[in-house]
Amino acid sequence: MRILVIEDEPQLARHVTRALERANHLVRALHDGAEGLQAALTDPPDLIVLDLNLPGLDGLGVLAKLRAAASPARVLILTARGEVEHRVRGLKAGADDYLAKPFSLDELVARIEALGRRGATPTAADLLKVGDLHMDVQHRRIMRGGRPVALSPREFDVLQVLMQEPGRVFSRTELCERVWQRDHEYDTRTVEIFIARLRKKVDSGAAAPLIHTVRTVGYTVRPPL
Ligand code: CA
Protein backbone atom coordinates (compact mmCIF):
# COMPACT_ATOMS: atom_id res chain seq x y z
CA MET A 1 0.00 0.00 0.00
CA ARG A 2 0.99 3.62 -0.43
CA ILE A 3 1.02 5.11 3.04
CA LEU A 4 1.39 8.72 4.14
CA VAL A 5 2.60 9.24 7.70
CA ILE A 6 1.83 12.65 9.22
CA GLU A 7 3.67 12.81 12.55
CA ASP A 8 5.67 15.70 13.93
CA GLU A 9 7.97 13.71 16.23
CA PRO A 10 10.86 12.89 13.86
CA GLN A 11 12.04 9.84 15.74
CA LEU A 12 8.59 8.26 15.92
CA ALA A 13 7.96 9.10 12.26
CA ARG A 14 11.25 7.39 11.38
CA HIS A 15 10.45 4.23 13.37
CA VAL A 16 6.97 4.02 11.87
CA THR A 17 8.33 4.54 8.36
CA ARG A 18 10.94 1.81 8.77
CA ALA A 19 8.47 -0.69 10.22
CA LEU A 20 6.02 -0.10 7.37
CA GLU A 21 8.75 -0.31 4.74
CA ARG A 22 9.88 -3.61 6.21
CA ALA A 23 6.29 -4.80 5.71
CA ASN A 24 6.66 -3.85 2.01
CA HIS A 25 4.65 -0.64 1.99
CA LEU A 26 5.62 2.50 0.14
CA VAL A 27 5.89 5.20 2.77
CA ARG A 28 6.17 8.96 2.75
CA ALA A 29 6.50 10.84 6.04
CA LEU A 30 5.67 14.51 6.63
CA HIS A 31 5.92 16.39 9.88
CA ASP A 32 3.38 19.13 9.47
CA GLY A 33 -0.43 19.06 9.22
CA ALA A 34 -0.83 21.55 6.37
CA GLU A 35 1.92 19.92 4.32
CA GLY A 36 0.47 16.47 5.00
CA LEU A 37 -2.98 17.55 3.91
CA GLN A 38 -1.59 19.06 0.72
CA ALA A 39 0.25 15.82 -0.09
CA ALA A 40 -2.81 13.70 0.70
CA LEU A 41 -4.97 15.75 -1.65
CA THR A 42 -2.56 16.09 -4.55
CA ASP A 43 -1.23 12.53 -4.54
CA PRO A 44 -3.80 10.45 -2.63
CA PRO A 45 -2.29 7.53 -0.70
CA ASP A 46 -4.20 4.34 0.15
CA LEU A 47 -3.83 4.98 3.84
CA ILE A 48 -2.83 7.80 6.16
CA VAL A 49 -1.30 7.43 9.61
CA LEU A 50 -2.29 10.70 11.21
CA ASP A 51 -1.06 12.05 14.52
CA LEU A 52 -3.78 14.18 16.11
CA ASN A 53 -1.46 16.47 18.02
CA LEU A 54 0.38 18.40 15.29
CA PRO A 55 1.67 21.95 15.14
CA GLY A 56 -0.22 24.33 12.85
CA LEU A 57 -3.16 22.47 11.37
CA ASP A 58 -3.84 19.64 13.84
CA GLY A 59 -4.91 16.10 12.99
CA LEU A 60 -8.63 16.78 13.45
CA GLY A 61 -8.35 19.72 11.04
CA VAL A 62 -6.55 17.55 8.49
CA LEU A 63 -9.18 14.84 8.87
CA ALA A 64 -12.09 17.24 8.45
CA LYS A 65 -10.59 18.69 5.28
CA LEU A 66 -9.81 15.24 3.87
CA ARG A 67 -13.34 14.02 4.41
CA ALA A 68 -14.83 17.26 3.09
CA ALA A 69 -12.80 16.67 -0.07
CA ALA A 70 -14.20 13.09 -0.20
CA SER A 71 -10.71 11.60 0.06
CA PRO A 72 -10.96 7.82 -0.28
CA ALA A 73 -7.88 7.23 1.89
CA ARG A 74 -8.26 5.13 5.00
CA VAL A 75 -7.14 6.99 8.08
CA LEU A 76 -5.59 5.59 11.26
CA ILE A 77 -5.24 8.25 13.93
CA LEU A 78 -2.57 8.25 16.63
CA THR A 79 -3.82 9.57 19.96
CA ALA A 80 -2.08 10.34 23.22
CA ARG A 81 -2.66 7.76 25.91
CA GLY A 82 -5.78 8.28 27.96
CA GLU A 83 -7.19 10.98 25.75
CA VAL A 84 -10.47 9.23 25.12
CA GLU A 85 -12.17 12.41 23.99
CA HIS A 86 -9.62 12.91 21.21
CA ARG A 87 -10.21 9.41 19.97
CA VAL A 88 -13.98 9.91 20.02
CA ARG A 89 -13.66 13.20 18.18
CA GLY A 90 -11.32 11.66 15.63
CA LEU A 91 -13.70 8.79 14.91
CA LYS A 92 -16.61 11.20 14.64
CA ALA A 93 -14.60 13.31 12.20
CA GLY A 94 -14.12 10.36 9.87
CA ALA A 95 -11.13 8.30 11.05
CA ASP A 96 -11.33 4.57 10.32
CA ASP A 97 -9.34 3.33 13.30
CA TYR A 98 -7.12 4.64 16.06
CA LEU A 99 -4.06 3.62 18.02
CA ALA A 100 -3.13 5.10 21.39
CA LYS A 101 0.49 6.08 22.07
CA PRO A 102 2.69 4.42 23.06
CA PHE A 103 2.09 1.49 20.72
CA SER A 104 4.25 -1.34 19.47
CA LEU A 105 5.31 -1.20 15.84
CA ASP A 106 3.99 -4.74 15.37
CA GLU A 107 0.58 -3.59 16.53
CA LEU A 108 0.71 -0.65 14.13
CA VAL A 109 1.60 -2.86 11.17
CA ALA A 110 -1.15 -5.35 12.08
CA ARG A 111 -3.75 -2.58 12.32
CA ILE A 112 -2.69 -1.11 9.02
CA GLU A 113 -2.88 -4.45 7.30
CA ALA A 114 -6.36 -5.05 8.70
CA LEU A 115 -7.41 -1.59 7.50
CA GLY A 116 -5.96 -2.25 4.06
CA ARG A 117 -8.04 -5.34 3.49
CA ARG A 118 -10.90 -4.16 1.41
CA GLY A 119 -14.42 -5.18 2.23
CA ALA A 120 -15.53 -7.13 5.25
CA THR A 121 -15.95 -10.51 3.54
CA PRO A 122 -14.12 -11.41 0.35
CA THR A 123 -16.89 -13.74 -0.84
CA ALA A 124 -19.58 -11.06 -0.54
CA ALA A 125 -22.10 -10.76 -3.33
CA ASP A 126 -21.31 -7.78 -5.51
CA LEU A 127 -24.65 -6.01 -5.33
CA LEU A 128 -26.56 -5.70 -2.08
CA LYS A 129 -29.99 -4.17 -1.69
CA VAL A 130 -32.14 -3.31 1.32
CA GLY A 131 -35.26 -1.24 0.55
CA ASP A 132 -34.10 1.64 -1.64
CA LEU A 133 -30.51 1.32 -0.40
CA HIS A 134 -28.14 -0.20 -2.95
CA MET A 135 -24.52 -1.18 -2.43
CA ASP A 136 -22.08 -2.01 -5.21
CA VAL A 137 -19.42 -3.84 -3.24
CA GLN A 138 -16.86 -4.10 -6.00
CA HIS A 139 -16.93 -0.42 -6.89
CA ARG A 140 -17.55 0.67 -3.30
CA ARG A 141 -20.61 2.70 -4.25
CA ILE A 142 -23.78 3.36 -2.28
CA MET A 143 -27.09 4.78 -3.50
CA ARG A 144 -30.08 5.66 -1.34
CA GLY A 145 -33.29 6.34 -3.27
CA GLY A 146 -31.24 6.88 -6.44
CA ARG A 147 -28.89 9.39 -4.82
CA PRO A 148 -25.22 8.59 -4.18
CA VAL A 149 -24.09 8.46 -0.55
CA ALA A 150 -20.44 9.20 0.23
CA LEU A 151 -19.08 6.93 2.97
CA SER A 152 -15.63 6.63 4.47
CA PRO A 153 -14.03 3.20 3.93
CA ARG A 154 -14.81 1.98 7.45
CA GLU A 155 -18.38 3.27 7.32
CA PHE A 156 -18.73 1.29 4.12
CA ASP A 157 -17.38 -1.85 5.83
CA VAL A 158 -19.82 -1.56 8.75
CA LEU A 159 -22.76 -1.07 6.40
CA GLN A 160 -21.61 -3.95 4.22
CA VAL A 161 -21.63 -6.38 7.16
CA LEU A 162 -25.16 -5.26 8.08
CA MET A 163 -26.47 -5.33 4.50
CA GLN A 164 -25.15 -8.81 3.82
CA GLU A 165 -27.72 -10.19 6.23
CA PRO A 166 -30.71 -7.85 6.34
CA GLY A 167 -32.83 -8.35 9.43
CA ARG A 168 -30.10 -10.13 11.35
CA VAL A 169 -29.15 -8.34 14.56
CA PHE A 170 -25.42 -7.84 15.06
CA SER A 171 -24.08 -7.18 18.53
CA ARG A 172 -21.57 -4.36 18.93
CA THR A 173 -18.89 -6.94 19.71
CA GLU A 174 -19.59 -8.91 16.57
CA LEU A 175 -19.54 -5.80 14.39
CA CYS A 176 -16.24 -4.84 15.98
CA GLU A 177 -14.79 -8.26 15.25
CA ARG A 178 -16.07 -8.38 11.69
CA VAL A 179 -14.98 -4.89 10.72
CA TRP A 180 -11.93 -4.08 12.82
CA GLN A 181 -10.72 -7.68 13.11
CA ARG A 182 -9.48 -7.06 16.58
CA ASP A 183 -9.29 -9.82 19.08
CA HIS A 184 -8.86 -7.55 22.05
CA GLU A 185 -10.51 -4.56 23.60
CA TYR A 186 -13.95 -4.66 22.06
CA ASP A 187 -14.73 -1.03 21.88
CA THR A 188 -18.47 -0.62 21.76
CA ARG A 189 -18.21 3.17 21.73
CA THR A 190 -16.42 3.03 18.38
CA VAL A 191 -19.24 0.97 16.92
CA GLU A 192 -21.81 3.42 18.30
CA ILE A 193 -20.02 6.33 16.66
CA PHE A 194 -19.92 4.57 13.30
CA ILE A 195 -23.62 3.71 13.49
CA ALA A 196 -24.39 7.37 14.27
CA ARG A 197 -22.29 8.45 11.29
CA LEU A 198 -24.07 5.97 9.01
CA ARG A 199 -27.50 7.06 10.23
CA LYS A 200 -26.66 10.63 9.40
CA LYS A 201 -25.55 9.76 5.90
CA VAL A 202 -27.93 6.96 4.99
CA ASP A 203 -31.14 7.59 6.91
CA SER A 204 -31.42 11.30 7.58
CA GLY A 205 -33.89 12.88 5.21
CA ALA A 206 -35.20 9.50 4.02
CA ALA A 207 -38.88 8.57 4.33
CA ALA A 208 -38.17 5.56 6.55
CA PRO A 209 -35.02 4.58 8.45
CA LEU A 210 -33.23 1.37 7.46
CA ILE A 211 -30.71 1.21 10.30
CA HIS A 212 -32.32 0.06 13.53
CA THR A 213 -31.12 -0.30 17.10
CA VAL A 214 -32.37 -3.41 18.85
CA ARG A 215 -32.28 -2.53 22.51
CA THR A 216 -29.57 -4.27 24.56
CA VAL A 217 -28.72 -6.50 21.58
CA GLY A 218 -27.23 -4.45 18.77
CA TYR A 219 -28.00 -3.19 15.29
CA THR A 220 -29.72 -4.37 12.14
CA VAL A 221 -30.51 -3.10 8.68
CA ARG A 222 -33.91 -3.99 7.32
CA PRO A 223 -36.38 -2.65 4.78
CA PRO A 224 -39.41 -0.69 6.03
CA LEU A 225 -42.32 -2.95 7.00
CA1 CA B 1 2.55 14.98 17.88
CA distance, first residue to last residue: 43 Å
CATH class (first level) name of the largest domain: Alpha Beta
Bound molecules: calcium ion
The CATH H-level homologous superfamily of the largest domain: Response regulator
Count of runs of 4 or more consecutive helical residues: 8
> Helices and strands, in N-to-C order?
EHEHEHEHEHEEEEHHHEE
The structure class reads alpha/beta
Mean pLDDT: 89
Strand tally: 11
- Unreliable stretches (pLDDT < 50, length at least 5) are 119-124
- Range of helix content: 40-55%
As for the CATH topology of the largest domain, it is Rossmann fold
- What is the gyration radius calculated from CA atoms? 17 Å
